[in-house]
């Protein structure tokens, strides 16, 4: 058991607590609601989340008693109990338009519940008392709510799930450091993508539509100080900027210095350097770190690569022997330079071309974890080479190659 607390807003803008409400005999009369783990009675269980229905007089709650409960806040009655999870239910929420509920549990599953029958039977509040007394629950929900889909794939507990506000997607996160995206229709649901890269449990996410996420969110460093606060390094959008939708085209990061390089097409090619101080700006076609405290900028007009320090001061400048339109990281101190039909590794300190390789026009460069192999991705071709640009194989695709990654065994997946 747990407690739901009702709050009553006043005309002055303040709120008063109407009192804690025991879950199984809830008395909710409010425009806002909260659930907690304040243990008002013996052997209580935590209420993880609560949410109002967008249309009906309902609230859905998720609890450590392994159930999802739907309440009528006007009649102060529980009208349906959804059972089927076998561990704590961490969250539950209504769909913004359809008669379905999504729930996430530490049993490593996400359930989608069809509550269409419950809505069809919705009547006067007095009917909810009778309906609760007649409720027949089984392994997969009550007679008014049944499991539509069971979504699996995480190998640790799932602690949040949410519907997309306009599209038929469900996104959920888990303690296995992954975020999964599922699509659904009237008859089935299937996994679309798995997002990886977090180094610890994923504690929150945000669904965004209409504009790219990077136009909304600041870039922050992942290191936390002693107070466990995250610090903004470099914003990718500035209020009132005329270049709100100007996409950053590359990002380079050096963890030892907490410094970020953001490159975009603004002003014909420019970069910003953020290192916990005031951001520093400059012009350049592309930028990349080549050492802990050194980065290189491509000057297309002179076909040179100035080397700068973290104060944005020029250290030295080297001329490229081949006309170059983009530079990529190629290990400490080296650059992978792209021309129209060739890539070459260039050492800006010695001003020396180490090796080269003829390729189609390359869009992306993906190094293996040990930096022994590199995948060069063009629109329809993948070229695999060694760190010295010794050709190993070429793969042709009939559809566009969008991305790729190396696994821990040295296998390239695209």
UniProtKB/TrEMBL annotation:
GO terms for biological process: endoplasmic reticulum to Golgi vesicle-mediated transport; intra-Golgi vesicle-mediated transport; intracellular protein transport; retrograde vesicle-mediated transport, Golgi to endoplasmic reticulum. GO terms for molecular function: structural molecule activity. It is a peripheral membrane protein. Residues 225-413 form the COPA/B second beta-propeller domain. WD repeats lie at residues 47-81, 82-115, 151-192. The coatomer is a cytosolic protein complex that binds to dilysine motifs and reversibly associates with Golgi non-clathrin-coated vesicles, which further mediate biosynthetic protein transport from the ER, via the Golgi up to the trans Golgi network. Coatomer complex is required for budding from Golgi membranes, and is essential for the retrograde Golgi-to-ER transport of dilysine-tagged proteins. Gene3D superfamilies: YVTN repeat-like/Quinoprotein amine dehydrogenase. It is found in: Cytoplasmic vesicle membrane; Golgi apparatus membrane. Its main location: membrane. It holds the Pfam family WD40. Oligomeric complex that consists of at least the alpha, beta, beta', gamma, delta, epsilon and zeta subunits. This is COPA/B second beta-propeller domain-containing protein. Transmembrane segments: none annotated. GO terms for cellular component: COPI vesicle coat; Golgi membrane. It comes from Arachis hypogaea (Peanut). InterPro entries: Beta-prop_COPA/B_2nd, Coatomer_complex_subunit, Quinoprot_gluc/sorb_DH_b-prop, WD40/YVTN_repeat-like_dom_sf, WD40_PAC1, WD40_repeat_CS, WD40_repeat_dom_sf, WD40_rpt. Keywords: Cytoplasmic vesicle, ER-Golgi transport, Golgi apparatus, Membrane, Protein transport, Repeat, Transport, WD repeat. Coiled coil: none annotated.
């Amino acid at each position: 058991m747990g407690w739901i607390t009702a709050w009553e807003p006043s005309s002055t803008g303040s709120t008063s607590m109407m009192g804690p409400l025991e879950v199984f005999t809830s008395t909710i009369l409010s425009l806002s609601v909260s659930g907690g783990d304040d243990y008002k009675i013996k052997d209580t269980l935590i209420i993880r989340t609560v949410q109002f229905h967008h249309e009906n007089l309902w609230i859905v709650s998720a609890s450590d008693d392994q159930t999802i409960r739907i309440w009528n806040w006007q009649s102060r009655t529980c009208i349906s109990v959804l059972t089927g999870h076998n561990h704590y239910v961490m969250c539950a929420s209504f769909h913004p338009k359809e008669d379905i509920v999504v729930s996430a549990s530490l049993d490593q599953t996400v359930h989608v519940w069809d509550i269409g029958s419950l809505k069809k039977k919705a009547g006067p509040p007095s009917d909810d008392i009778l309906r609760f007394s007649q409720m027949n629950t089984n392994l997969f929900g009550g007679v008014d709510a049944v499991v539509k889909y069971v979504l699996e794939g995480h190998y640790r507990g799932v602690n949040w799930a949410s519907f997309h506000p306009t599209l038929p997607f469900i996104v959920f996160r888990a303690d296995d450091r992954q975020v999964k995206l599922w699509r659904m229709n009237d008859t089935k649901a299937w996994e679309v993508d798995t997002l990886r890269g977090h180094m610890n449990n994923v504690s929150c996410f945000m669904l965004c539509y209409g504009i790219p996420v990077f136009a909304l969110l600041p870039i922050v460093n992942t290191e936390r100080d002693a107070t466990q606060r995250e610090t903004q390094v470099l914003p990718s959008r500035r209020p009132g900027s005329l270049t709100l939708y100007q996409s950053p085209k590359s990002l380079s990061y050096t963890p030892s210095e907490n410094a970020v390089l953001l490159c975009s097409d603004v002003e014909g090619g420019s970069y910003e350097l953020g290192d916990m101080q005031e951001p520093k700006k400059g012009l350049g076609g592309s930028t990349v770190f080549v050492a802990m405290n050194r980065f290189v900028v491509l000057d297309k007009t002179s076909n040179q690569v100035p080397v700068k320090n973290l104060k944005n001061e020029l250290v030295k400048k080297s001329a490229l022997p081949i006309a170059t339109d983009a530079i990529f990281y190629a290990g400490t101190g080296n650059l992978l330079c792209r021309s129209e039909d060739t890539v070459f590794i260039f050492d800006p300190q010695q001003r020396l071309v180490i090796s080269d390789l003829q390729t189609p026009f390359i869009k992306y460069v993906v190094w293996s974890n040990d930096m022994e192999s590199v995948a060069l991705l063009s629109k329809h071709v993948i070229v695999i080479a060694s760190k010295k640009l010794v050709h190993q194989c070429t793969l042709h695709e009939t559809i566009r190659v969008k991305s790729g990654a190396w696994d821990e065994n040295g296998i390239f997946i695209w």
